[in-house]
Every structure is written in C-alpha cells, then in structure tokens.
C-alpha cells in the first residue's frame, strides 16, 4: 500500500506541475547525502580500531 501511495503522490505532482517524469538514477540519494555517508563510514571504521585518512580522488 505504501508503494501505491508513493506512486500516486508522484503522479499528482507531475500532473499538477505539468512536468514530465525524469528518473534521477539509482545513486541519486547517495550523491545527495555523500558527506553524511562518508562521516558514518569513517566513524564505523574508527570504532573498529582503524585509523582513517581521506584524500580526494583525482579521477572524476
């Protein structure tokens, strides 16, 4: 039932705004929340006893 409600909400917004549906991609939320994910992952590794040093990747 929750999935049907989500779909109907999307349809409602698309119709009222007269927009075309655009798939955002499977990693949309990870990209939006990347900083939080990195902090949580570093924290988990440190709790396991690892020392973590991060550096930005040169490859895009």
Question: What is shown here, in short?
Answer:
The protein is 58% helix and 0% strand. The chain is mostly helical and 60 residues long.
Protein architecture, described:
This protein has about 60 residues and is mainly α. It has a domain of about 30 residues. Helices cover about 60% and strands about 0% of the residues. It has three helices and no strands. The longest helix has 16 residues. The protein is elongated. The termini are far apart. The mean pLDDT is about 90.
Counting DSSP E segments of at least 2 residues, the number of strands comes to: 0
State mean pLDDT (0 to 100 scale). 90
Question: What is the gyration radius calculated from CA atoms?
Answer: 19 Å
> Which term fits the overall shape?
elongated
Task: Report the end-to-end length measured between terminal Cα atoms.
Answer: 40 Å
Order of helices and strands: HHH
The percent range for strand residues is under 5%
Separate helix tally: 3
Features:
about 60 residues, about 0% strand
Write the layout of secondary structure elements.
Blueprint lengths: L1 H16 L10 H5 L1 H14 L13
């Amino acid at each position: 039932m929750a999935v049907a409600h989500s779909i109907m909400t999307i349809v409602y917004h698309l119709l009222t705004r007269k927009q075309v549906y655009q798939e955002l991609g499977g990693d949309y939320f990870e990209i939006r929340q990347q900083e939080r994910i990195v902090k949580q992952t570093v924290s988990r590794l440190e709790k396991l006893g690892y020392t973590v040093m991060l550096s930005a990747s040169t490859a895009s």
